[in-house]
Design brief:
mainly alpha, 2 domains, 5-stranded mixed beta sheet, 5% strand
C-alpha cells in the first residue's frame, strides 16, 4: 500500500514537472515581493535621487559620485526615471506614497529578474538538447539569491545590485540567444545591456571584457558573433578611458580605488567559508583553466558551446578576484559573480549522465542551502528590526505638533538638506531649534554627538521616545519628547 502510494506520488510529480517549477517560482517571488513591499525609505543614500525627483521635479541625472571618491557610475540610479517616463504623478510627496511608488518598482524589477533567469535556464536545455531536471533547475535558480546581504539589497533603494542582476541576466539571455540564432534583435539587446552595465559599477568592465574576449579568441570563424564581441571590447576600452579622465585623475577627495591595497588574507579565508558558491566558482575556474591549457598544448579541439559557458565562468571568476584585490569584502559586492555563475553550474550539472552523481549533487545543494539559512535568518531579523524602528521613529515625528532639530552646527549643509527633506515628508512643522519656547509633547531630534548637551540644557524635561541607527546620521539619531512646557 505504502509502496504503491510512493510510486503514484512520484509519477504525479514527474508528469507535473513544469507545474512544480512554476509553482515554486511563484511562491518564491511572492515571498520576496511581500518583504520588499513591507520595506521603508531609510534616511540614507536614497535621498540623493529622491530629492531631484520630488523636490526639484526633474529627471534623476548622472550620479554625484562621478565627482567624489574617484567613483564613476553615472547610470547607478537613472533607471528610476522610468517612473517619470510613465507619467506617474509626484505631487503627492507623503512618505507612504514614496514607499509605495519606489518599492513597487523594486518588485517589478524582481519579477523581471525571475523571468529572465527562468528563460536563460530553459534556453540552455533547449539549445543544448538537454532534458530538464526539476531539482537541478530549482537549486541552480536559487544560487544567485544565496547571498547573506540579499535581503538588505532587495529592501533598500541605495543598493543598485537588483538592477545589476536584471541587466546581467538580460545580457546573458540575449548574448546566448544571439550565439545560437544570430538574430539582430539579440545583438542590439546584448550591446545596450552591456553598455548600461559598464556605467553602473566600474568593476563590471572585467566580466564583460572577459566574456567577449574569450569568445572572440575561440570563435574566430563566427564573424557575426565576433562583431558583437568586438563592440563590447571597444566599449570596455572607452569606459576605461572615461574613468581615468573624469574620476581617477580628476577627483580631489579620498580616492577609494586609487589607494586600494591587496585584501587581508584572513578576510579572504573567512569570505570563502561564508560564500560557498563563490568558492565553488573559483575552484571550478582553476580546474577549467588547467583543462583548457592541457587541450591547447595537446591541440585538442574544444566544443564551441563549452567556450560560451566557460566565458561566463571566468566572468564570475575574475569579478570575484577583482574585489578580493580591492579589499572590498561586503557580500553584496559579489552578487554579480553569482549571477554569472548560474548558467555555468546549470549547464555542467545538466550534462552529468549518472543519476547517482546527480543525487549526490542535489544532497550537496540541500546542505549548502541549509548553510545559508543561518545568514538569511540573521539578515532578515536585522532588516526587519531596522524597518520597524524607522517606522516607529517616523510615527513619533508624524504625530508631534512641532519638531525641532537640536544643534544645527553639528550637521553640514548636505546633511541639513537631507534631514529637512526627510522629516518634512512626514511633518511640515520641522525647523531648527533656536531657543523657542517649547510646549509639552514637542519633539526634539538629535544625533548621538549632541545628547550630552541636550540633557544639560533641558535637564529633566525630556525623555527619549525612539532611536535608530543610520549611516547618514553618524551612529544613531534619537527623538526626545518634551515632558513639561516652558513657563
Amino acid at each position: 500500500m505504502n509502496k504503491d502510494l510512493f510510486f503514484k506520488t512520484f509519477k504525479f510529480f514527474k508528469e507535473k514537472s513544469k507545474f512544480i517549477i512554476y509553482f515554486c517560482l511563484i511562491i518564491f517571488g511572492v515571498v520576496l515581493s511581500k518583504y520588499i513591499l513591507n520595506s521603508v525609505i531609510l534616511y540614507e543614500d536614497e535621498i540623493d535621487f529622491l530629492v531631484p525627483y520630488f523636490i526639484e521635479k526633474k529627471y534623476i541625472g548622472i550620479s554625484n559620485r562621478v565627482w567624489e571618491y574617484s567613483r564613476f557610475l553615472p547610470f547607478q540610479f537613472i533607471d528610476y526615471n522610468i517612473l517619470l517616463l510613465l507619467h506617474i504623478p509626484y505631487n503627492n510627496t507623503s512618505l507612504a506614497s514614496i514607499n509605495n511608488l519606489f518599492f513597487s518598482y523594486q518588485v517589478v524589477k524582481l519579477w523581471i529578474v525571475i523571468l529572465l533567469e527562468f528563460l536563460i535556464l530553459k534556453d540552455i536545455c533547449k539549445f543544448n538538447k538537454l532534458k530538464l531536471n526539476n531539482l537541478i533547475f530549482l537549486f541552480c535558480f536559487a544560487i544567485c539569491f544565496c547571498n547573506d546581504m540579499m535581503l538588505g539589497v532587495l529592501g533598500c533603494l541605495r543598493y543598485a545590485e537588483l538592477t545589476m542582476m536584471l541587466f546581467i541576466f538580460l545580457f546573458i539571455f540575449a548574448y546566448q540567444r544571439y550565439y545560437f540564432t544570430k538574430k539582430a534583435k539579440y545583438f542590439i539587446i546584448s550591446l545596450i545591456s552591456s553598455v548600461y552595465l559598464l556605467y553602473m559599477k566600474e568593476v563590471l568592465f572585467i566580466p564583460l571584457g572577459v566574456i567577449s574576449g574569450i569568445n572572440f579568441l575561440f570563435n574566430k570563424k563566427n564573424k557575426c558573433f565576433n562583431l558583437l564581441n568586438i563592440a563590447i571590447i571597444a566599449n570596455c576600452i572607452l569606459f576605461l578611458c572615461l574613468y581615468f579622465i573624469f574620476a581617477y585623475n580628476s577627483s580631489q577627495h579620498y580616492l577609494i580605488y586609487k589607494e586600494m591595497q591587496f585584501g587581508n588574507l584572513n578576510n579572504f579565508y573567512f569570505f570563502l567559508h561564508k560564500e560557498i558558491f563563490i568558492t565553488i566558482s573559483l575552484i571550478l575556474g582553476f580546474f577549467v583553466l588547467f583543462k583548457m591549457i592541457y587541450y591547447c598544448s595537446e591541440k585538442i579541439s574544444i566544443d564551441k558551446k563549452l567556450i560560451l559557458y566557460y566565458s561566463f565562468l571566468y566572468a564570475s571568476f575574475f569579478h570575484t578576484i577583482a574585489y578580493f584585490i580591492l579589499n572590498l569584502g561586503l557580500s553584496y559586492y559579489y552578487i554579480p559573480s553569482l549571477v554569472f555563475f548560474v548558467p555555468v553550474i546549470f549547464y555542467f550539472l545538466m550534462n552529468i549522465k549518472r543519476k547517482s552523481f546527480k543525487l549526490i549533487i542535489c544532497l550537496f545543494f540541500i546542505y549548502m542551502f541549509n548553510h545559508y539559512t543561518m545568514f538569511f535568518q540573521s539578515n532578515y531579523n536585522f532588516n526587519v528590526k531596522r524597518i520597524e524602528r524607522t517606522k516607529a521613529f517616523n510615527f513619533e515625528v508624524y504625530k508631534s505638533k512641532n519638531v525641532y532639530i537640536f544643534n544645527p552646527s553639528h550637521w553640514n549643509e548636505r546633511i541639513f538638506n537631507k534631514i529637512i527633506f526627510c522629516l518634512k515628508l512626514i511633518n511640515q512643522n520641522v525647523k531648527w531649534y533656536t531657543d523657542e519656547k517649547l510646549t509639552k509633547d514637542d519633539l526634539i531630534i538629535s544625533p548621538d554627538g549632541d545628547w550630552e548637551n541636550l540633557y544639560k540644557k533641558f535637564k529633566d524635561r525630556i525623555e527619549c521616545v525612539e532611536e535608530f541607527n543610520s549611516t547618514l546620521f553618524f551612529d544613531s539619531i534619537r527623538a526626545f519628547k518634551i515632558t513639561k512646557s516652558d513657563i
